[in-house]
UniProtKB/TrEMBL annotation, chain A:
Annotated ranges, domain Aldehyde oxidase/xanthine dehydrogenase a/b hammerhead: 211-304
Name of the protein in question: Molybdopterin cofactor-binding domain-containing protein
Lineage: Bacteria, Pseudomonadati, Bacteroidota, Flavobacteriia, Flavobacteriales
UniProt keyword terms in alphabetical order: Membrane, Transmembrane, Transmembrane helix
InterPro entries, per database record: Ald_Oxase/Xan_DH_a/b, Ald_Oxase/Xan_DH_a/b_sf, AldOxase/xan_DH_MoCoBD1, AldOxase/xan_DH_MoCoBD2, AldOxase/xan_DH_Mopterin-bd_sf, N-heterocyclic_Hydroxylase, OxRdtase_Mopterin-bd_su_IorB, TAT_signal
Pfam families xref list: MoCoBD_1, MoCoBD_2
Transmembrane segments: 12-31
Organism of provenance: Mariniflexile soesokkakense
Transmembrane helix recorded as keyword: yes
From TrEMBL, chain B:
Domain 2Fe-2S ferredoxin-type intervals: 2-78
Gene3D superfamilies: 3.10.20.30, [2Fe-2S]-binding domain
Protein name: (2Fe-2S)-binding protein
Keyword Metal-binding: yes
Keywords: 2Fe-2S, Iron, Iron-sulfur, Metal-binding, Oxidoreductase
CDD domains reported in the protein's UniProt record: fer2 (cd00207)
């Protein structure tokens, strides 16, 4: 068994207490939708709950509440995090109820949803919480029976004396466990002994979702709450001067109208940089506010450039040709190697700005009083919100509480906290609880978009078609997408990676698999073209390169493990029966490593009525231990569809600082008829601690679809979105 | 403000709202039936799908004044205990990721199966194309509709 030191601080010791009635502990339990219903079975309502260690509460009936600390954005951590606790606690999953924990920086760690990090960063803490609970319950039973702990065993929440077969349940002993001192060291299970982890457990909120129970921020309501809407300037580069305040205030259902300012001292990475002053209207119903919003007549002033897509494209081209280059990595002598190469190929790739477009638009509830601020809603970074609200209201951070609702999608959009600050500013101004709601148009035109990118790739082959030189130079608005130490770094003798920063006043930020979402597609379609130039099979060509990196890697700072990388390629090759050809079926392959996870994908595509249609996708994934198998497959399938969808159809374009796309009539998202017919997912069996899953499925899909499209159309696709890009043939 | 008498999920409701108020906002703001979701407000995403005399419609485009005596069913009234075949199939296939669009998907799928009990892939694509799932659960939705057609 693995032994680890427990890491409970003083505050968590204080949490070990008897909590009668259940409600006492959970002051944040504001919705009936907060607790899960497991297996839709009605468990008898316990009359006493015992708080074991802040993650776990056990009732006298044996029912167990496990708090899920992190925000739920659809990555299913509300099921997988408690599964990890339940595994080590050793309870029957049927008796588990899940509740969302509040933001509590003194107790939980890393309460955010981003970077595919929830499980990876909390793996040990969750196991520790479960194992500590198990140990304390065992000690309580041992004390009760006057036996050494070593005489006892536990399974599914039932403690047994190995010699007498005497038993006691967790529910029966929980009251005594509360008095046990938290152990300084505990034993964790060996992965081979897992009973729950690496099985398929259904979403704990499944029944609530399919019956339409209130779960999301937009569903939250409190008595006396007002609704609010904002109107931001019509273009990036503009600022509000004034508006027809009196006229708006006189409209039906409108209670107030004013301008707020959400500027704060020393803004952080998750604070708004675009529209800091906004027109606000407050009223009693969403529809009346929507009508009043349309009647707003405002004067705007131009404060910086009004950018357009045409100039964005020119800016990217200009940067790649003449921008200030930062050399990020250089191995060997790329210039000389390109000169000596028998064949040289150079290609330029680009991708536009895109919006997150979570299906639930931005919204937040705030109740700001003189001394306190309460915020409830969909947020990926509750801690950042808490800190920024404290700054905005000039209030000690302890006086700000943040509670998390389930989110109707995140994809990085809800890392940015401005809508929470806006809600707080509005509540403060009107002196009552308020819920701010964005329209879809607000959401799409006041985004924190995926940056626009462009990169030039260059490769040199010797006379034997070996890759001897490789370079990448990438730029973006505003950031470069280049990862200097990722593949093919380490596999090529002469290698160069260069970055060029760009400038824009369009607000950008993390969008599912930041930079990887572009770089994987560009690099993997380029590698496909290089393999073709070398006359080699695209998978074999990659495997040759990884062989080099396994046996004799170039440089010391390569981000990836070449064995695991080639492992997923070999697995997808086998599962897709690579090499097999079918008339009218076109295949593309790609592999990528990001968020510490390796994914290889093969796409089968056909042409139907002149339109490409993905028939099937095979995915091989190495993400270490898989916590919840079927849910993990769902995550990868979603990533693949997201990757294909955005690469093929989506773009956000600008004219004079304003987005041309404001809603789903013009902004194209992948739909049912365009989705692949089938996606099979295979996980590499592993005992390595779990790594990311929410993002890594997406990036390789962009390369695989580009490569399959090439096979189908004889045209290479360099510029996203592929279906809007009209390549000049010949 | 005029008063409207509505029949929703076989219950009678009375609301005082502007005559152009879309059913979506009547349900969400005035009747606390929040399973019907706001996604786009222009009938492009399907998150607000409800049944209007048994037919799937977008409640964001349906003004309260034109409903009259028509029967409205929302996700809350699709079944008594979440046991409509489509809901059961959704749970069996563990369809949702974020879950936000799923009520609209389910309402549309239930309406489809009523008129076409054994839809082909093509039938499903045509019927469901107006329902966006940003998380990309399309494959599971299709599988769940096929499972539901056998329940």
């Amino acid at each position: 068994m693995t032994k680890i030191k427990t890491q409970y601080n003083r505050r968590s010791f204080l949490k070990v207490s008897v909590a009668a009635g259940g409600g006492m502990l959970i002051g944040f339990s504001w919705l009936t939708g907060s607790a899960s219903v497991v297996n839709s079975q009605q468990v008898s309502v316990p009359n006493e709950w015992f708080d074991i260690n802040g993650y776990i509460k056990i009732a006298n009936t044996g029912m167990v509440t496990i708090y899920s600390p992190n925000p739920e954005i659809g990555q299913n951590v509300r099921t997988s995090m408690p599964m990890i606790v339940a595994e080590e606690l050793d309870v029957d999953w049927k008796n588990v109820v899940v509740e969302q924990a509040p933001l509590n920086t003194g107790f939980y760690q890393n309460q955010f949803a981003g970077g595919s990090l929830s499980i990876r960063l909390s793996w040990n803490a969750l196991r520790m919480a479960g194992a500590t609970g198990r140990r304390m319950l065992l000690e309580a039973a041992a004390k009760e029976w006057q036996l050494p702990v070593s005489n006892l065993s536990v399974s599914n929440g039932i403690i047994k004396d190995k010699n007498s077969n005497k038993i006691i349940t967790y529910g029966e002993i929980a009251t005594k466990a509360v008095g046990i001192e938290i152990p300084k060291e505990i034993e964790l299970k060996e992965p081979k002994d897992f009973k729950l982890i690496s099985t398929s457990v259904k979403n704990v909120d499944g029944l609530k979702i399919v019956t339409g129970k209130p779960l999301f921020g937009l569903d939250f309501k409190r008595d006396g709450m007002q609704f609010a809407m904002i109107q931001h300037p019509p273009a990036f580069g503009m600022k509000v001067k004034d508006f027809n305040e009196e006229e708006i205030k006189g409209m039906p259902g409108v209670k107030d109208a004013f301008i707020i300012d959400i500027s704060i001292p020393e803004p952080g990475a998750f604070d708004e940089k675009g529209f800091l002053q906004l027109i606000v209207i407050v009223g009693e119903s969403t529809w009346q506010l929507m009508k009043a919003k349309k009647a707003i007549k405002a004067n705007w002033e131009v404060v910086s450039a009004l950018e357009s897509s045409k100039t964005h494209v020119e800016q990217l081209e200009e940067a790649l040709e003449r921008g200030k280059v930062q050399q990020e990595r250089k191995d060997g002598n790329p210039d000389a190697a390109f000169k000596n190469a028998a064949k040289v190929i150079e290609r330029t790739y680009s991708a536009p700005f895109i919006a997150h477009n979570t299906m639930e638009p931005m919204n937040f509830f705030a109740n700001v009083t003189e001394n306190e601020a309460e915020l409830i809603g969909p947020i990926q970074t509750p801690k950042a919100l808490e800190e920024s609200v404290a700054k905005l209201l000039d209030m000690p951070v302890e006086k700000v509480t943040v509670n998390m609702t389930r989110m109707g999608g995140g994809f990085g959009r809800r890392l940015y906290v401005h809508f929470g600050l806006e809600a707080a500013a509005i509540s403060k101004k009107i002196g009552s609880p308020v819920k701010l709601i964005y329209t879809r148009e607000d959401d799409m035109s006041q985004g924190t978009y995926k940056p626009a990118y462009s990169s030039i790739y260059k490769a040199g082959l010797d006379e034997n078609n070996n890759l001897i030189a490789f370079s990448v130079r990438g730029t973006g608005l505003p950031e470069s997408p280049v990862f200097p130490n990722r593949f093919p770094a380490g596999t090529v003798e002469n290698y160069s990676a260069e970055k060029i920063e760009g400038k824009t006043n369009i607000t950008t930020g993390a969008w599912r698999a930041p930079s990887s979402n572009f770089t994987a597609g560009a690099e993997q379609s380029f590698i496909d073209e290089v393999a073709e130039l070398a006359g080699k099979d695209p998978i074999d060509f990659r495997l040759e390169l990884f062989d080099r990196a396994i046996k004799n890697p170039v440089g010391e700072k390569n981000d990836y493990d070449a064995e695991r990388y080639s492992g997923v390629l070999k697995l997808v090759k086998e599962k897709s029966n690579w090499g097999e050809t079918k008339p009218g079926v076109y295949r593309g392959v790609a592999a990528y490593f990001c968020h510490s996870t390796y994914v290889a994908e093969v796409i089968d595509l056909v042409m139907e009525n002149g339109e490409p249609k993905v028939k099937k996708v095979w995915c091989a994934v190495d993400c270490g231990i898989v916590v919840n198998i079927d849910a993990a497959k769902n995550m990868i399938q979603g990533g693949v569809i997201d990757g294909i969808g955005h690469a093929m159809y989506s773009q956000l374009t600008f004219t004079e600082g304003a987005t041309n796309e404001m809603n789903f009539d013009r902004y194209k998202l992948i739909r049912h008829s365009q989705a692949p017919e089938d996606i099979e997912v295979f996980f590499v069996k592993s005992e390595i601690a779990p790594t990311g899953l929410g993002e890594p499925g997406l990036p390789p899909a962009v390369g695989a679809i580009a490569n399959a499209l090439y096979k189908a159309t004889d045209v290479r696709y360099y510029h996203q979105p592929f279906m809007f890009y009209k390549p000049i043939v010949g | 403000m005029p008063t409207y008498k509505l029949s929703i999920n076989n219950k009678k409701y009375s609301v005082d709202v502007d005559e152009d108020t879309p059913l979506l906002w009547v349900l969400r703001d005035h009747l606390d039936l929040v399973g019907t979701k706001y996604g786009c407000g222009i009938g492009q995403c399907g998150a607000c799908t409800v049944h209007f005399n048994g037919t799937a419609v977008r409640s964001c485009l349906l003004a309260v004044s034109v409903i009259g005596n028509s029967k409205i069913t929302t996700i809350e009234g699709l079944s008594a205990n979440g046991d409509h075949p489509v809901q059961k199939a959704w749970l069996e296939h563990d369809v949702p990721q974020c879950g936000y669009c799923q009520c609209g998907q389910i309402m549309n799928a239930a309406a489809l199966l009523k008129t076409n009990p054994n839809p082909s892939d093509e039938d499903i694509n045509v019927a469901m194309n107006g329902n966006i799932c940003r998380c990309g659960t399309y494959i599971r939705i299709k599988q769940a509709i096929k499972t539901a057609s056998k329940l």
